[in-house]
């Protein structure tokens, strides 16, 4: 068994949203993947710092974050960062899935988060086999 871990950055201005996402995905989204270490970010500057340093393997962004939401941040990162890590956007309403597609996210989660669907979605993205997926 590998001791390597996967680094996932979870961005939201609300700590309870970050906690919900971390709890839903869990410390090991699938048996064939390594354990997950989370980096929590409440400000865009923190996200940009971590991405610029290449310290994260995947980002989960709150689409409802304030003052800038995860969808706009996802689009910015995908357009400005060479070899941008995969991004999952969490949205509040199923009707917002089209915005998550606009954001160029690799996958979408819909609140309330189902732990099985959240872990499966993150595992698919980490394996690199994800096409834009909507779980919820």
UniProtKB/TrEMBL annotation:
<protein>
    <submittedName>
        <fullName>Response regulator receiver protein</fullName>
    </submittedName>
</protein>
<feature type="modified residue" description="4-aspartylphosphate">
    <location>
        <position position="62"/>
    </location>
</feature>
<dbReference type="InterPro" id="IPR011006">
    <property type="entry name" value="CheY-like_superfamily"/>
</dbReference>
<dbReference type="InterPro" id="IPR001789">
    <property type="entry name" value="Sig_transdc_resp-reg_receiver"/>
</dbReference>
<feature type="domain" description="Response regulatory">
    <location>
        <begin position="7"/>
        <end position="126"/>
    </location>
</feature>
<dbReference type="GO" id="GO:0000160">
    <property type="term" value="P:phosphorelay signal transduction system"/>
</dbReference>
<keyword id="KW-0597">Phosphoprotein</keyword>
């Amino acid at each position: 068994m590998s001791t390597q871990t996967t680094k996932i950055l979870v961005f939201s201005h609300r700590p309870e949203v970050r906690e919900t996402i971390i709890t839903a995905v869990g410390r090991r989204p699938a048996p064939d993947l390594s354990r997950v270490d989370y980096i929590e970010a409440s400000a865009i500057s923190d996200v940009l710092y971590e991405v610029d340093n290449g310290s994260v393997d995947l980002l989960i962004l709150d689409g409802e974050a304030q003052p800038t939401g995860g969808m706009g941040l996802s689009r910015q990162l995908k357009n400005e960062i060479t070899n941008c890590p995969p991004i999952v956007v969490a949205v509040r309403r199923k009707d917002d899935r089209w915005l998550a597609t606009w954001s160029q996210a690799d996958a979408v989660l819909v609140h309330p988060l189902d732990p099985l669907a959240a872990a499966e979605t993150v595992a698919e993205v980490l394996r690199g086999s994800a096409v834009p997926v909507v779980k919820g």
